Amino acid sequence: xxxxxxxxxxxxxxxxxxxxxxxxxxSRSYHSYDHRPYNPYTLxxxxxxxxxxxxxxxxxxxxxxxxxxxxxxxxLDTTHAVFQDGLFDLVKFHLYRxxxxxxxxxxxxxxxxxxxxxxRVRRYCIERLKGNExxxxxxxxxxxxxxxxxxxxxxxEELAKLSDEIWFLVDDKSADFDWYTKRASLAAVYSSTExxxxxxxxxxxxxxxxxxxxxxxxxxxxxxxxSSLASWTTFTGFASINLLKSQxxxx
Length: 251
Known about the structure:
Blueprint: H1 3-28, H2 43-53, H3 56-59, H4 63-72, H5 87-101, H6 106-113, H7 117-130, H8 139-146, H9 152-169, H10 177-197, H11 206-222, H12 226-249
């Protein structure tokens, strides 16, 4: 059997699993128009994690960043132990913080991009991706952490929340099956673009924005969704293995 067909067959179980996990994530991430966004962090947690993120550019998504965050926030070095998910808590906080920043941009984006839903969706994707610029050289570490089996469900849930937030901000009122399709498609586009960005050395990430435009066009023309999410999961698996190897080589 041709290798291409074998590849498709091997991917099918992953696609089925991903469909199930992402559907569950979407069901948990429904954006209410009647309630204020929930903040899952205490003031002390926000203080520590915000301080820790300032060290990610230098140290990466590693324990040292959390320790430095505790020191800067006025706590003992060992305070990082209160975060039960360890480094994943640092990754989740970055995802949460950058996602929740998007709402403040709505007046500006509505004015600059007009009524076009497509233009506004693209703009929100770009603004969110820009939130990774300062730590983009360390982002594969975050991807590897998210790819750990115990972390994948919450990583997909956060991705679903981001997709839902963007559709909410462009005033999407879908209430049928199209609601799920739109969010899954956008999540696939965003996740693949985020991965592309980690390898982009072009000025001001011009190639990344071009890649984003192509992926958005793919969705409009073919409705591709699951294959992109499958690629994200495959990439994260390889990233976690490579990160583990590099850590072992350093002793």
